[in-house]
Amino acid sequence: MIEYSMLYPKVTVSRRCVSMDGMWKFKLDEKEEGEKENYREGIPGDEVIPVPASFQDFYTDKDIREFTGDMWYETRFFVPGEWEGRDIFIRFGAATHRAFVYVNGKKITEHEGGFLPFLADVTEHVTYNGYNRLVVKVNNELTVTNIPCGETVVLSNGKKMSKPYFDFFNYSGLQRSVYLLALPKESVFDIDLTYEIEGGDAKVNYKIKTTGEHPVEAALYDKSGEKVADSSGKEGALHVEHAHLWQVGDGYLYCLKVCIVDGEEVIDCYEQEIGIRTVEIQGENILLNKKPVYLKGFGKHEDADIVGRGFDINVMKRDFELMKWIGANSFRTAHYPYSEEIYQMADREGFLVIDEVAAVGLFASLMNFMEASTGKQTAFFEKETTGELLKAHLKALEELIVRDKNHPCVIAWSLLNEPESTNEAAVPYFEEVFRKALELDPQKRPRTFALVMNSLPDTCKCYNFSDIIALNRYYGWYVKGGYEICDAEELFRKELDGWKNLKLNKPFIFSEYGADTLASEHKLPSVMWSQEYQREYLDMTHQVFDSYDFIKGEQIWNFADFQTTEGILRVNGNKKGVFTRQRQPKDVAYLLKERWEKLPSDYKGQKA
Ligand code: EVA
Hints:
Elements: E1 16-19, E2 22-28, E3 48-51, H1 62-65, E4 70-79, E5 87-92, E6 98-103, E7 106-112, E8 118-121, E9 130-139, E10 150-154, E11 160-164, E12 178-183, E13 188-198, E14 201-210, E15 216-221, E16 227-232, E17 235-240, E18 254-262, E19 265-274, E20 279-282, E21 285-288, E22 291-292, E23 295-299, H2 313-326, E24 330-332, H3 340-349, E25 352-356, H4 368-371, H5 386-404, E26 410-417, H6 426-440, E27 447-451, E28 469-472, H7 485-502, E29 508-512, H8 531-546, E30 551-557, H9 588-598
Parallel strand pairs: 23-24, 23-30, 24-25, 25-26, 26-27, 27-28, 28-29, 29-30
Antiparallel strand pairs: 1-12, 2-3, 2-4, 4-9, 5-8, 5-12, 6-7, 6-9, 10-11, 13-14, 14-17, 15-16, 15-18, 18-19, 20-21, 21-22
Helix pairs in contact: 2-3, 5-6, 7-8
């Protein structure tokens, strides 16, 4: 059980919420002296840095960019006197990968996991009508007991370095917004929703958790602010006549207003935007509002110049404009839960989201994305540390589902990316994770995980757990690239024939496929890394997709070029983007636009 409310911070009649974003004091603890020197009471020096942002790409010094260890942030905040008597929290959108929070020198809380929100209850520790000091120690070391998995090594010069078992740069710090909240002592804590569509009408079933005993009233308003239904009680149903369903490209949102009342007096109100829609798997089909839908889109990252993985509202806007332009309808939040504002935008724009927890790197290798194709085994789930990892994974999963369950855009949970699922030891681990997701989600959305190249019909021990089988495949890139692409196609078809023969009666999607491509390279005839080859690769891949009716979606890797650890396989980052890191199109963007605009939304839906 999470002991604080995960509801997104909002100002209402009863709630106050002040942004703490801005320039904060900052210090990398290079000498590991922060504890001894009592940084919790104030950090030395004058360095300041923006919050939210990754710290890495502001500076010109490589030791800073690669810094691994503790970093300290500090800011001052004012708590209004009229807030006395309320509960006061500091809400962190995320702190990557773990944080220790101090207010006025006193430790308040700590949090493990770098991509989900947490609250520090500071009610008893702040000075009212005065200034207070917030110090946060953030640590960005990677381990195999937390997600995402990796190692921290010490180099011969004594400096620590991050060795991720995943293919994105270990951006870290306070990468999301921080808010100061004042809530009434009795407040709305959590909201569960399920939907039933009845002809043209709909039923919204709700269950409200509060921190007290007073009664609850719920009312639903349409987009124009008209009340369309209401109900009393912590649990109930709202009947909506002629419901405007939430659809792809038509993210119609109602506003659910939940109030705790004491007679005439309103104790607390919270407003939650909701979209009325159902999601289910039926045979080989993914159904949205009982109609088949074919996924077209991307695996993405939160990644951009300078800000790194820090939430940037401008980059978000551009990304949605590009996704609409190209005819996409969906994306996967590879490889971690994204900033909440991105789901809110997907809700509004009518995008389908596969929401991924940060369980990536559960395959002990620095280049697992490549080595998996060679049949390498690492016995990952046989490690002694697996129990501890599972605990961290389940906790993050709970935070993810509680945080995101009310977004209509979220149509499935991705519970792992490319785990080593070819070993029996993975099975009990998967069992726990898949069971937990089902238990936590009131809407019982489909669950999936992305299968790595060597998790094949005859080797994967875990595909049966998935409601949607999601394949990450690189035939024509890591396997038989270049002039050998004809052999890649043969192997690709052979694998798919294998899946077909299993008659799983489940939908398949491609959660990754792609080829690294330098926006600067044109070459006729093609060579790998040229824009011409990316096109050839996609032409082959699309032909294969179109030959199998059980394939119900394609999410290309990646939306845009992104930063990774440096190395011989990466040219200043991963270049599989359809767009550059600056969000301009490579040639294949036009090919995808043509394809995706042509494919009907229920492509292959009727034949199942
Ligand atoms: C790649 N392949 O090699 C991608 C990685 C990604 O960036 C994978 O899931 O299998 C991974 O993170 O480009």
